[in-house]
Write a structure and sequence with these properties.
The complex is a heterodimer. By secondary structure, chain A is mostly helical. Chain A is 60% helix and 6% strand. Classes of the chains: A mainly alpha, B alpha/beta.
């Protein structure tokens, strides 16, 4: 099973962070659901053309965050109801929050409108997750 | 286990100045280490010393705990080596080149060679001189890998290949890692390839190791601070700041590399220098290479700080 992941070697984040972030996104919008089996780190390494060590490190990080779990000899699966520690939430949300706040400042949008937009986007993701869940036979 | 150890390696050509002037680093089993540096930094010299093709003029080199000059045969038998300008005999057919290497290496793995030839889609019949550059590289790589070496040394493996051939070569190397999992020491000028392949980066500058660190640690623990209107800032003072690693002037502003988070380096600059117009970001390897090797690099004491802890 392939993952909706694409890495850019010269982006701001190192490749293993990019993989971690994109798996998180895929879970957030329901493209990856609990119980979904991730490709082996070797398979994903060949697909993304990155070192298998890097994918292993990304998977270890996802495990550490409680988002996936390894079943020995049987692959790695997306976990149910995974949630990050508040500190990790902050670490991950700070940069996108900052760039969102900067954009808002530049276009002159008040904070209230940004908050409203965030709720709308959140509702969108919820409905995407719901739709994908419903689509499962 | 230590696969390779370089201690105080020196090498000069003729009566010229030392190309290598005290290189120290070591390679653990299973690591993929990228050797970086500007042209002429001594990367090829170091790799040739590891292979026992050149001798260090001081210090010592140990490969698998052996001396690559005294135990030349055993060391070469256990290393797979692809030189920058690898020349395969053009008049031989691909199958004949493989047969030749097979007869030279007792540990040659027929099954692995067959599988790789199939995956690379290498034809057996054509003469080597009729192959594309990319295919010739793949033949050289296959020959280096099929004996299942404990250490693979690749000098500019993708040099001279077009982007498509380079990507294919990279895919080949990843498959190889998946198939044969080995320790790799390679040099490259393609930073995006290094980001895709390497666990660890060793940067050589002025004949010595300037940086030796895990790639991800390097990516996550350094930042680049841009000081607008930096003309008023004393570069020496800037370089003396805690965490400041290199300074470079560029179009009226100063670029400073810090071994700190972006926010921390901004804070240090504001607090210590009263700098107001500062923006710090994380940087990828390519910029780090240019910022470090294109600017003022502190010597002596600060080098030690970038060693893995």
């Amino acid at each position: 099973m392939s993952l909706p992941i694409h890495v850019l070697p010269s982006a701001e984040l190192p490749i293993y962070r990019q993989i971690v972030g994109q798996v998180l996104d895929a879970v957030a919008c329901g493209r990856l659901r609990p119980g979904h089996r991730l490709p082996s780190h070797r398979e994903l390494a060949e697909e993304l053309v990155v070192s298998p060590h890097t994918v292993e490190k990304a998977y270890d990080e996802l495990k550490r965050q409680g988002l996936v779990r390894a079943r020995p000899g049987n692959g790695t699966y997306v976990e149910d109801g995974a949630a990050l520690e508040p500190a990790a939430q902050h670490e991950r949300l700070y940069a996108p929050a900052r760039s969102l706040a900067a954009e808002a400042h530049v276009v002159g949008a008040p904070l209230g409108r940004v908050r409203k937009l965030l709720s709308e986007v959140d509702a969108e993701l919820r409905s995407e997750r719901h739709r994908r869940k419903g689509g499962r036979s | 286990m230590k696969i390779a150890e370089f201690n105080d390696v020196h090498r000069a050509y003729g009566r010229g100045k030392d190309v290598l002037a005290g290189v120290d680093f070591s390679l653990e089993a299973g690591q993929i280490v990228a050797l970086l540096g500007k042209n002429g930094a001594g990367k090829t010299t170091l790799l040739r010393i590891a292979m026992g093709l050149l001798e260090t003029q001081r210090g010592s080199v140990r490969i698998f705990g052996l001396d690559p000059r005294k135990d030349a045969v055993e060391v070469k038998r256990r290393i797979g080596y692809v030189a920058e300008d690898q020349i395969l005999p053009g008049f031989l057919r691909v199958s004949e080149v493989l047969e030749l290497h097979r007869s030279l290496f007792p540990t040659w793995d027929d099954e692995l060679a067959r599988r790789l030839a199939e995956r690379f889609d290498l034809p057996a019949r054509p003469k080597v001189k009729t192959l594309s550059k990319g295919q010739a590289r793949q033949v050289a790589l296959l020959c280096a890998v099929a004996p299942r070496p404990e250490l693979l040394i690749l000098d500019e493996p993708a040099g001279g290949l077009d982007p498509a051939a380079r990507r294919e070569f990279l895919e080949t190397s990843i498959r190889l890692l998946n198939e044969a999992g080995t320790t790799i020491l390679f040099s490259s000028h393609y930073m995006s390839d290094v980001e895709r392949m390497a666990d660890r980066v060793v940067m050589i500058h002025d004949g010595r190791v300037l940086i030796d660190n895990e790639l991800d640690a390097l990516r996550e623990s350094y930042s680049l601070a841009l000081l607008n209107g930096g003309a008023h800032v004393d570069q020496e003072k800037l370089l003396a700041l805690d965490g400041c690693f290199a300074v470079r002037e560029r179009a009226g502003s100063l670029h400073a590399i810090f071994q700190l988070d972006p926010q921390e380096s901004e804070a240090v600059l504001e607090r210590e220098l009263g700098a107001v117009d500062v923006r710090a970001t994380r940087i990828a390897l390519e910029e780090m290479f240019i910022e470090l090797l294109g600017g003022t690099v502190p010597s002596g004491g600060k080098r030690g700080e970038v060693r893995p802890s």
